Amino acid sequence: MVHNNKNNKLDQQPMNALSVICGFPVSNGDSEEIISNIRYRAANRFGGWVVTLNLEMLSKVNRDHSYRQLLDEADMYIADGMPVVWASAHGKHRAAPPIKERTTGVDIVDQLLKLEDIPRFAIIGGEQPQKTLDLYPGANQACRFLFDGVVDLSPSQVEHFADQIIQQKIEIVFVALGVPKQDLMAKALQNLAPDAVYIGVGGTFQMLSAEGRRAPQWMRSSGLEWFYRLLSEPGRLWKRYLGHYPPGALYLL
To answer: Please, are residues 101 and 30 in contact by the beta-carbon 8 Å criterion?
Structure first.
């Protein structure tokens, strides 16, 4: 097992301008700029932990100090939810300039897997991610490690994952475990294998699968994708959206 301190190369890379939202310095770049930044980190082995910030996370931050402390350790924050984008243009979080657009974990994975030169990547978690990879030419070759079994965050399991990341020279790790599990895993792995970029992507692989469907573009742009998903999977998502999203929205006000 390799023990490392936090990678000090992060200060050497270009960064998008930032908008401070609820104390988090959120990138206000567009999707192209953000993905370019991620690719730069990955290619130069600068590493980093990327948080895709949404209302569920902000709700948990507001009621759980330990989770706040955990997210404070991340290296890059992206506006995954439209309310985060809106907050940068209105009210107490108004920034100059405001966040240009929403960039979701789904957007990041989709665009990275469409590249001709896909970075070496790993997947931890997700619902049958292999089915999604089969839809992208070149993705299976670039995927050097995939684990979609039971994740228990035990020291032995984290060490095993870190060893694979180091041995396979993996550049990007998609951690698809949901909140807060994916955040705990990303930080634990970063401590052991800091040269990779870790991105929490939640249910991305399910949404990108042949069975999954994203909301129409107009619903995504208007901040209604959550409503589309709630109608599609009410049994699984009602508690998350109706229980966690309102407190997160109040925290933004």
So the answer is: yes
Nearest 10 degrees: Cα torsion 132, 137, 142, 143: 20
Q: Does any domain span residue 3?
A: no
Count of CB atoms situated within 10 Å of the CB of 163? 15
**pLDDT tens-digit map of 53-104:** 999 999 999 999 999 999 999 999 999 988 899 988 887 777 767 899 999 9
> Does residue 77 lie in a domain region?
yes
Q: Which residues contact 61 (CB under 8 A, 6 or more apart)?
A: 22, 67, 68, 71, 251
Q: Which domain holds residue 136?
A: 16-207+217-252
Bridge-based pairing state of the strands 24-27 and 18-21: antiparallel
Residue 5 covered by a domain: no
Residue 11 lies in a domain: no
DSSP code, position 102: -
* pLDDT, position 15: 56
